[in-house]
Write a structure and sequence with these properties.
Elements (H helix, E strand, L loop, with lengths): L1 E7 L5 E5 L4 E3 L7 E7 L12 E7 L5 E6 L4 E3 L8 E10 L11 E8 L3 E3 L2 E3 L6 E3 L8 E3 L24 E3 L7 E3 L13 E4 L8 E4 L2 E2 L4 E2 L3 E4 L9 E4 L1
Parallel strand pairs: 3-9
Antiparallel strand pairs: 1-2, 1-4, 4-7, 5-6, 5-8, 8-9, 10-11, 12-15, 13-14, 16-21, 17-20, 18-19
C-alpha cells in the first residue's frame, strides 16, 4: 500500500496529504508541485521491495496519463491539463528486476477542481472565501482552516475533515437562517449554472433544507433538501442550480 501527498517541486515541503475522495485544486497540479508516493508495509509486499512506482491517472474527460519513477523519494508531475471532475489514480510498485509486484496495485478516487477565479467558462470560489451571515442567531458559521481547526478528535491529522479542496472549507452552523454569501461578476447577462460542493453529516436518510438566493433583489428558489453524504468521512455531494 501507499500514502500519497502533494509536495513542493523545489523544496520537497509537504503541501497536503491525499486521502480517498479528496479534491485537488488545479494550482497544485503542474510544474510547481509533485505527487509523492510513499510505499508502506502491507500484507502483499514490504516497502523495502519497492524500487520504483508507476502512476496512472484517468480523468473525467477520458484522458489517461502515466508516469513512472525509480528515484526516491518517488515523485511524479501530474499533467496541468488534467480534466476537471472525478479522477481515478492507480499506483503500482516495481521491484529491482523491473517487474510489477503482484498485489501492489492501489486505486484512489480524486476530484480535480478549479482554484478560485475564472477558468474557461467556469468560475470557482473556495468555501474559505465565503462571508458568514448568521443574522441574530448564534454565530456558529465560519471558516475552517489551519488556523481554525475542528474540535472533534476524529478529524484528520490537519484538524480538518477529509475531502475538502483548497486550504479549508466553510463550516455551516446548525441554526435556522444561518447563511453565507459571495459576489461574482460576469461579463454578460445570461443563464449560469451554480454547483455547490458540500458535505452533510448524519444518516443516509437525514437531509437539511437549504435555499439559494441571488441578485440584489434576493430572489429565492424554494428550500430544497440537501441529502446527507455520510460526511465527514464520506465523499461530498453536489447541489446544482
Amino acid at each position: 500500500m501507499f500514502s500519497l501527498a502533494i509536495v513542493d517541486a523545489q523544496t520537497g515541503t509537504l503541501v497536503r496529504t491525499l486521502t480517498p475522495g479528496d479534491a485537488l485544486t488545479r494550482d497544485l497540479i503542474g510544474d510547481g508541485y509533485r505527487l509523492q508516493v510513499t510505499p508502506l508495509d502491507g500484507a502483499d509486499f514490504s516497502a523495502s521491495q519497492v524500487r520504483g512506482v508507476v502512476v496512472t491517472l484517468d480523468d473525467a474527460g477520458g484522458s489517461q496519463q502515466q508516469h513512472s519513477t525509480f528515484i526516491t523519494p518517488f515523485r511524479v508531475a501530474l499533467d496541468e491539463n488534467t480534466g476537471r471532475g472525478g479522477a481515478l489514480l492507480k499506483i503500482e510498485a516495481v521491484n529491482g528486476a523491473g517487474t510489477t509486484i503482484l498485489g501492489s496495485a492501489q486505486t484512489q478516487a480524486l476530484e480535480i477542481v478549479n482554484h478560485e477565479g475564472w477558468s474557461s467558462d467556469v468560475y470557482t470560489l473556495q468555501g474559505t472565501s465565503l462571508i458568514a451571515d448568521d443574522g441574530s442567531s448564534l454565530a456558529d458559521t465560519g471558516v475552517r482552516d489551519a488556523d481554525h481547526r475542528e474540535s472533534s478528535p476524529t478529524a484528520g491529522s490537519d484538524g480538518l475533515w477529509n475531502g475538502h479542496s483548497g486550504s479549508g472549507y466553510l463550516d455551516m452552523g446548525s441554526q435556522v437562517g444561518d447563511a453565507a454569501y459571495f459576489d461574482v461578476t460576469v461579463e454578460s447577462a445570461g443563464t449560469y449554472q451554480l454547483d455547490v460542493r458540500y458535505a452533510a453529516s448524519g444518516s443516509a436518510t437525514t437531509s437539511r433544507p437549504m435555499a439559494v438566493r441571488w441578485t440584489a433583489r434576493l430572489r429565492a428558489c424554494s428550500a430544497s433538501p440537501v441529502p446527507a453524504t455520510a460526511a465527514p468521512a464520506g465523499r461530498p455531494g453536489i447541489m446544482r442550480r
